[in-house]
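We modelled the chain as a single entity of 243 amino acids. Its sequence is:
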Amino acid sequence: MSTEALFRADAYLRECAARVVSVGPEGVLLDRTVFYPLGGGQAADTGTLTRADGLVVRIADTRKSRAEGAGPDDALHVPDAESAEAAAALVPGDTVVAAIDWDRRHRHMRLHTSTHLLCALVPHPVDGCSITSGYARLDFATVEPLDREGLQAGLERLIAGAHPVAIDWITDEELAAQPDLVRTMSVKPPMGFGRVRLLRIDGVDLQPCGGTHVANTAEIGALRIAKIEKKSARTRRVTIEFA
């Protein structure tokens, strides 16, 4: 059985009822979850698991399961140190309410969507990325300098343009026939499961992505280009943060 990753269909879900599948030293596995596990450059969700009797387990991290036979969406909910005893009290079959730290998630969604806007503005492959609750950065594989003022103006224009953001799906074969859709060199889209998730920003960007995003670019809010760095002879790093 594989965990049902509810955030893939609806990134705005803040909580869900779930059943405990297993509990171990690496974390708690649920049959369904709203928690996004670390991956694709995006930081993991944090939050709580609350059992019907009031037992609360604070989740400090979420990681993809590396266990043999694990499904692509199997996620381990890692308790913080103070919740280790409470987590150990959970048993398979327990019903819990899984609730994410919404403010943290929403910041991830806004910043992750903004990195797709950057991809639309910079016509070079991405060779590294990181999305946190405080900033996002993209490393572009280029020897050319990047225009900070131009990128700032472009971001503001695309955010103000209120472009709808939606999820599409294509088959592995369709993606293989359109390799130009893949912009990232360091993170490859997950294939081998029959279909691949695409993020579509209407009139702006289309590429494989498994992260969480806002429904409209206007929701991102004010951002600023914090800095542009030359990380190597062939790489330029752009860091963005909330204004």
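As a brief sanity check on the tokenised model: The first strand starts at residue 4 and ends at 5. The chain has a mean pLDDT of 93.
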